[in-house]
Write a structure and sequence with these properties.
The chain is mainly β and 109 residues long. The chain has no helices and ten strands. It has a five-stranded antiparallel sheet, with no helix packed on it. A three-stranded antiparallel sheet has the order 6-5-8, with no helix packed on it. It is globular.
Length: 109
Amino acid sequence: YSPWGRNDKVVSTPRYNINRVTVKPGGKFSLQMHHHRVEHWVVLSGTAQVTLNDQTFLLTENQSTFIPIGATHMLENPGKIPLEILEIQSGSYLCDNDIVRFKDHYGIY
């Protein structure tokens, strides 16, 4: 269970994972970074508000962004419908304990 939505693994390999992520309206990830993986986010439906280091910008359907190793980032759904993205993670280490959280909005981490 995630208060912001759900994460469904589509493909899982030692070097890359592909996830279908659904973020509820008003939901958001923790502000975080990774030491060992990059992420590519492709918006399938809805609107994504992306924080990437010191920038914040919106993405809509069929737009994408790249999250490099070490970049501080956060994903939010500012819209009224669910946000669906395809998240491609790749790198030498893909486990969740590589997530460094700076701000947890729900108090669960």
